Amino acid sequence: MDAYGHVNNVVFLRYLEEARIDFLFRPDKDFQQGSVVARHEIDYKRQLVHRHRPVDIELWITEIRAASFTIAYEVKDDDVVYVRASTVIVPFDFTAQRPRRITDEERAFLKEYTDDASGQGAVAA
Hints:
Number of helices: 2
Helix content: 10-25%
Number of domains: 1
Mean pLDDT: 87
């Protein structure tokens, strides 16, 4: 909470990080090889005042490229959206210290969560 009584902007980055880690770093997924954040974009839509009740975070994949992908998020309660955000993720080989290509297994996993007109693909965190 900041001096104005609402959740500070950097806390939203932590919320997004927690949702992203829960989504990507499952024991059965290959993203445990490593990845790095290349870019964040956050649009703050409404204040979120301090409270004990959690907020919902929905995320989905909006773009898959050869060596990066984009996750979109909404931090919300029912119909109230506090934040819309996106993160560009780059799979990374920490041994070689360079980006790597998305594997076929990773691509198949990400495609399950791409956005489409029917609204399918969103994951609640």
